[in-house]
Amino acid sequence: MPVGAASQRTYAMNAPPSPKRVVYAVGDLTRRIKQVMEAEIGWVWVEGELSNVSRATSGHLYFTIKDENAQLRAAFFRGRQRDLSFAVKDGVKVRVFGQVTVYERSGQYQLIVQEMEEAGQGSLQAAFEALKNKLQTEGLFDPSRRKKLPLLPQRIGIVTSPTGAAIQDMLNILNRRYPNLHIVIAPVKVQGQGAAEEIAAAIELFNQWRGVDVLIVGRGGGSLEDLWAFNEEVVARAIAASTLPVISAVGHEIDTSISDFVADLRAPTPSAAAELVIRPKEDFQESLGNAQRRLARALNAFQLELKQRYTQCAGSWVFREPQNLVTRYRGQIQSAQQAMGHHLREAARQRQQRIDEAGLQIRHAGTQQLQHVRNRLQHVQEQLRLLGPLAVLERGYSITRLANGELIRDPNDLEAGTPLHTRLARGEVESIVTSSKEKTE
Predict the structure, then answer these.
(1) Which CATH number characterizes residue 204's domain?
(2) Do residues 22 and 145 both lie within one domain?
(3) Hey, CA dihedral for 85, 90, 91, 94, is it positive or negative?
(4) 328/271 same-domain check
(5) Cα–Cα distance for residue pair 51/8, rounded to 1 Å
(6) 122 near 88, Cβ under 8 Å?
(7) Are strands 155-160 and 182-187 parallel, antiparallel or unpaired?
(8) Which of 68, 178, 212, 255 could cross-link with 155 by S-S, CB 3.0 to 4.6 Å?
(9) Are 239 and 262 in contact (CB under 8 A)?
(10) pLDDT tens sequence for the chain (441 residues)
(11) How would you classify the pairing of strands 108-121 and 92-103?
């Protein structure tokens, strides 16, 4: 039989018995599918591993039940959760009883859960616990291994996806807190095959380069599968071997990864990591001002104490009492007055000499203290100068703006003929765009 004939017969066999066309509205067809599914399948027990677990503000739980072949979306309303005796979280293997239905608004089928019981540990969760126990036994989670973060890092390395929302959140926060920081991004895959190896390689590369002061390693939220690269042993050992301090910033606050346990600091989110890595510039300026005022007050108090001690010495009985004794007993000591006067004058001279020496020492100590304060202030001012935008220009960089003063960040935003204004370390240059080309890695 010819192929065309066979095809025609197949079509005829599957065609509706009546040539009359029936057109359904989307809602009507979805409602009919829902009715058929609820009637034909109805109430069932399902076993699988939990994933993408989330709890709404209403208390309802939404999650996916999955195995190696398929996934099923499910909802577990708060009123049915009274008998739960375990934590509902990603990786837990469960048996659930509920009704298969269709959520008409999205046209997706789902399971409305009425009962849930624990069936054991899921494969991913089991792998997580096994690696966690292994590394903990080796001492990789020991708090004594954790390195302190620098108080004022000048260069920050970030290992994450260059296209996710997490990197934009971190850059916005860092720019707001300390605008002239130097940030180096190592673009890597953060999920899927090969992601863990790329993350580990980027951490090792930063350590070989030594061009940054601290590392942030992480990504935004996702399911347990999405975050799994940060639960791989190769990433954990790269973080543990890092001589640079590492902040782990993986997922949301409720997410926990192996990298969190190994890192020197765990941030609940990437945005929180940007806030933890450096204090706002204003805080440093305020601290320096407070230190300067405390030093000035301490120096003034020290000088006042020395002045009071000097006054007390000058008014001591050593200088006043001998003359009083001479006046009181002039008749009795007249014969020895000449000798006594010489003795007293010599004693006064020696005392005055000691006081003069003490005064010199006081002035010398005050001068040294003042110089020490000046040196510290000059050092801090030099650090602030080096971190300022003019210092960046001195290193060969430039700042290019449009005529209205807007900074140029992307050459694709420019059109030929656009006038530009470029600020150099020692002058300015006016130019016009002839062509633009985006840099590729």
Answers:
(1) 3.40.50.261
(2) no
(3) positive
(4) no
(5) 46
(6) no
(7) parallel
(8) 212
(9) yes
(10) 333 333 333 334 455 555 678 888 988 888 888 888 888 888 999 999 998 899 999 999 999 999 888 999 999 999 889 888 788 888 888 889 999 999 888 888 999 999 898 876 667 778 888 999 999 999 999 999 999 999 889 999 999 999 989 999 999 999 998 888 899 999 999 999 999 999 999 999 999 998 999 999 999 988 778 899 999 999 999 999 999 999 999 988 878 899 999 999 999 999 999 999 988 766 666 767 777 778 878 888 888 888 788 777 766 655 555 555 556 656 666 666 677 667 777 777 787 787 777 777 777 777 888 788 788 888 777 777 777 666 677 777 788 888 888 888 778 778 888 888 888 877 888 888 887 665 554
(11) antiparallel
Gap between the Cα atoms of 87 and 90, Å rounded: 10
- Quickly tell me which residue has 């440093």 as its tokens: 284
Is 55 inside any structural domain? Answer: yes
Instruction: Quote the number of domains for the chain.
Output: 4
Within-domain flag for 441 = no
Asked if residues 231 and 261 have their Cβ atoms less than 8 Å apart, the reply is no
Domain limits at 331?
282-387
230: left (phi over 0), alpha (psi -120 to 50) or beta: alpha
